Amino acid sequence: MSRKILITGANGFVGTYLSLYFSKNNYTVFTAGKGMCRIPQYQSAGICYHETDCTQKDSVLRMFSEIRPDVVIHSAAMSKPDDCELNPTQAFDINVNAVSYITEAASVYKSYLIQISTDFVFDGEKDMYQEDDIPGPVNYYGHTKRLAEEIVQQYPYNRAIIRTALVYGLPVSGRDNLLTRVQSKLSKNESYAVVTDQRRTPTYVEDLVRGIDLILMKNATGIFHISGKEVFTPYEMAVKTAQLLNLPSELLKPVTSATLNEPAKRPRSTVLNISKAETELGYRPVSFDEGLQQTFFRNPFLAHQ
Fold this sequence. Notes:
It contains twelve helices and eleven strands. The protein is α/β, with parallel strands linked by helices. Helix 1 crosses helix 8 (about 205-215).
């Protein structure tokens, strides 16, 4: 009998990949999202979608009582830092309160709980961060995700927290990311400003999904950094994308964070050390060049959809 897995944020970028991946890996997949299902592939994949607002406790408890999941992957979040900075009440409701409701409901069924977090829980003042480094977020998004981590760490059954960084890949439901924005802008001969003074370990979306699968296969618990291994600035990522797609990289405008003057401050450097995941899980991310190739030319996961 296959295990029942519940994935929240099922209309989102990461949630979609998680849902489609686990539907092919001996799981019965249930998904939850706010509003109607926007992923047509779910029906053909046999995925059951629940229209659920995770900020409503009664709705969450009712959904759990119907599904009784063995595994819960909570990927739903308000993840744009500027939106969180400008709408803190909403951000707290989605990123913190919802996590409280999810953990309370999951504890009834002793579900294996996985929470997806972010490199933005760190202040960016170190060259590299390990799992046991103390968080110190510089924006409200990071603050809410740190609070969510603290809630999950009190969960009394099997649990894991996944910190990841700058996830990229081919969007399933139309939502863009840095690489697809570069493609869109440059293909229309429009200039695009990209920052040069932030350092990240960009994560190919399928690597993130496979990393989570490794955690489940090994019944691992605790905090894991699941990201790419190479370090790039967003500008360097954009240039590589333009070069791969034979688009005019001179339209990319290198700027500093101060120039952009975004509502939410970004940490300078959130390079994640993934040695724990490599050693304990056997996690092996693809190179950024390979991730780019899979994103734009031969994405093996979506090719058969």
